[in-house]
C-alpha cells in the first residue's frame, strides 16, 4: 500500500494550474485561410471556450480551427504550448499566417518534449501576446476532450519530469505485477494468474495509448496510424480477461453461481466486438461502435455486482477484487462523464486513472499472493491426507514405501536398519472388546512409537496391526536397543487384551547389506519378527541367516495370536 501512496503523491505533484489563456474555435469551412480565421477571431465570430479545461471539438468534416491568446502575466522566455491528452490525428500550428509545424502522435518533437502530450515550442522572439492559431485536422470516430497549456520552458520541463516519473512508476508497477502473475501461472498451473496478467497488460496498453506514453518516451510512433483500432481491441480484451479472472478469483461458481454465466458471456462478447470492428462490412463496424460503450458500462456494473455478492456470501478474494476495482470503476465513470462534456473542472482524471490502475494491480497481486498461499496450504493438506494413515496419522504403506526408497538411495555408504512391528494378540483384542477398542489401541501405539523414534526415522503403518520403521545411520547394536525400547514402551501402555494379557509388540530387525532393496529388507525383518513371535512375543529379534527356517514350516502369524 505504501507504493500506492507514493504514486498518489506523484499524481498530485504532477497536476498544475492552467496557464492564463483565452480560447475560441469554429469548424473549418471551404476556402478558409489562416488570415481569414484570425480576422474572424478579432471580430468575435468564434466560439469562446476555457483552454485549461477539457473540451471536445468536432473533428469531422474539414476539421476545427482553434485560436489561443496568452494573457498576462507574460512569460519572458521560450514558451511551450502543450495539448493534453495527445489528440489523435494531426494538428497544424501556424505562426500568424504562416505554417509553423505539425503535431502528431507519430512525429513527437523529441525526448525532452511531449511526454504524455503534444507540445510545440515558441521562441523568445515571438511576441508574448500574439495569438496562436491551430488547425485540428479531421479524424474518424468520436473525439476526446483536450486541454491547452502555455508555460515557460523551465516550468514545462519540471512538469514533464513529474509526469514522466509518475507514469513510468505506474507502468513499471503494472508490468511487474503482470510478469509476476505469469510466473505464478507457470509454477502453479493456474489460469487465474494468466487472466490477471492479460487484464493488467491490456489496461496498461490502453493507458499508454491514451496518454501517448507508447509513442514518447517509448518511441513506438509506427503504431500511431492504428492507435484507434489498437485501443478498441485492448479495451475489449481487457474486459474479457477481467471477466475470466474475476469469475475464478472470486469463485463465482461457489459464491455467486447465478452471476457466473453472464460474467463469462462478457469474455466471449467483447472479443466478438473487436472482430466486428475490424470487419470490412460497414454495418458490422457501425453496430460494434454503437455497442461498445453500453457494453463497457454493463460489464463494469455486472462485475462489481458479482464481486459484491460473492464477498457477501463469504468469498475472501472478492474483497481484494472490490478494493482494487472500485476506485478504478469510479474514475472510469467520471472519465466517461467528462468525455460527454460534463465535469470539465477535473482535468486530473486521466492521470488518476493510471494511478488507480497501478493501485489495482498492487491490491490484486496481494490477493493473488493470498490465493497462492491458500492453494499451497490446500495442496499440502491434500498431500498429507493422501500420504498419512487416516487413523494413526503415520505414513500409510504407499507413502512409506516411496519415502523408504528415497532414504535407501540417499543413505548409500551408511548403516541402515528396518524394523517390522506386529502387535501381539491384536485379533483377540478386536474379537473380545470390539473394533473401536482396537482403533484406540492402534492410535495409542502409534503415538508411543512416534515419541520413542527420532524425527528423522521413517515410521509407517504397513497393515492392520503392523507397523514398520526405517532407521538411518544406526548400527546393529543400536537398532536392537531401539527395538527393545519400543517393545517396553508399548507394553507400558498397559492396554488390556483380556483379563490375562496386556497388548505387546513383536519386532523383527534387518540390517541393510549390499544389493538390498526395500522389499528384501522387509522380507528379512518379517522373518525375524516371526522368530520373535515363536519365541514368546513382546521382544525384538535380529535376522540371522543361519537361523533361517523353511517358509513352508511356519504357521501363520494370525494363528499365533489366537
From TrEMBL:
Residues 1-17 form the signal peptide. Gene3D superfamilies: 3.30.70.270. It catalyses: 2 GTP = 3',3'-c-di-GMP + 2 diphosphate. PROSITE patterns: GGDEF. GO terms for molecular function: diguanylate cyclase activity. It is an enzyme of class 2 (transferase). InterPro entries: 7TMR_DISM_rcpt_extracell_dom1 (IPR011623), Diguanylate_Cyclase (IPR050469), GGDEF_dom (IPR000160), Nucleotide_cyclase (IPR029787), Rev_trsase/Diguanyl_cyclase (IPR043128). It comes from the Bacteria. Keywords: Membrane, Nucleotidyltransferase, Signal, Transferase, Transmembrane, Transmembrane helix. Residues 414-545 form the GGDEF domain. Its EC number is 2.7.7.65. The chain crosses the membrane at residues 163-188, 195-215, 227-246, 258-275, 295-312, 319-336, 348-369. The keyword Ubl conjugation does not apply. This is diguanylate cyclase. The lineage of its organism: Bacteria, Pseudomonadati, Pseudomonadota, Gammaproteobacteria, Lysobacterales.
